Amino acid sequence: MPMLIAFVILVSLVLIAVIFVSVYPVLGGSPFRASRLPLLRSPNYRDGKFINQVPTSLSMSFGQTLKLMYEFAKGEPNRKPKQPLPVVPLSVDKLLAKNEEGKAQASVTWFGHSAVLLRIDGLTLFLDPMLGRAPSPFPIFGNARYSRKLPIEIEELPEIDAVIFSHDHYDHLDYGTIRKLRHKVKRFLVPLGVAAHLERWGVDPSCISEHDWWEEIEYAGLKLATAPARHFSGRNVVGRNGTLWCSWIIEGKNEKVFYSGDSGYGPHFKEIGERYGPFDLALIECGQYDERWSAIHMMPEETVQANVDVRGRAMVPIHWGGFTLAMHDWFDPPKRAIKAARERGVTIAVPRIGETVAFPAAEYPADEWWK
């Protein structure tokens, strides 16, 4: 009888978990329920999952895992700001401003972490617009956004010509943001498999296009291309690497931008530079790193090297200033990146959250505002 009761309890828990996964929309959709043909045709898809260009281990020993849990639980005084970070208010007029010649000025506005609003050729693109409270399937329990507010509320944003995603992790793809933003967006450009999430959240499938590495796209006069990154994907306890992760090349008539998404350092950066460089501006991951997972998140010095590899004329470190997802001081990413950039003679911009930065420019903001 005790064995039967234990079995019934176990089966019940499994059924509850399965039902929960199927009905809780925040977890996203399953790419395996949608058309799998594009996934199966991808040279980067093997044995039911996507793979990196080079071997990339995500495993840690039992001892390392215990130590990591202790470090997270212990906390450190500089792991997050002592006060909510201030933001520079953004207005639609400021965002759509033209230069002295009456032409639309290419610009980027950083929203913290990896969310960047890009203006190029008079078009408005939003890169990885995670604008939610916390990067978690249960935001009420997640660590809160440092700034506590956005430079501009989603409802006040102008029409978005395209939203571009690099992968489906919670700190990049947010259910609440998509639900609020979807009616303002003309087009969603995503890596393979990610459309399933957007479709479950009410985005019209005809507005979504999925792309594999090295695929080139023309949209609204822009030339875009997906490129490799060294990372992984997944929003659930099952199905890791069931969707693709990528970086992006965005080329207008006069300016060219590289967006790294999340990535460990690897040979793909040099390959991207050789194929598509140089870039007027490179937005490159720099934050949430640790030696234990350096294969999937670069150290700041590697971020600067990646900019050199892709041939960026100027770089903006992203993937910091939003949330605490690692053990380093929250201001460590820009501090180390600036030091490495100066040593390498690399032009670096470190704008405030909400600050609009025009490019190309003779000077970029790089004062240490976090102090």
From TrEMBL:
<dbReference type="Pfam" id="PF12706">
    <property type="entry name" value="Lactamase_B_2"/>
</dbReference>
<dbReference type="InterPro" id="IPR036866">
    <property type="entry name" value="RibonucZ/Hydroxyglut_hydro"/>
</dbReference>
<comment type="function">
    <text>Counteracts the endogenous Pycsar antiviral defense system. Phosphodiesterase that enables metal-dependent hydrolysis of host cyclic nucleotide Pycsar defense signals such as cCMP and cUMP.</text>
</comment>
<dbReference type="InterPro" id="IPR001279">
    <property type="entry name" value="Metallo-B-lactamas"/>
</dbReference>
<feature type="domain" description="Metallo-beta-lactamase">
    <location>
        <begin position="127"/>
        <end position="320"/>
    </location>
</feature>
<protein>
    <submittedName>
        <fullName>MBL fold metallo-hydrolase</fullName>
    </submittedName>
</protein>
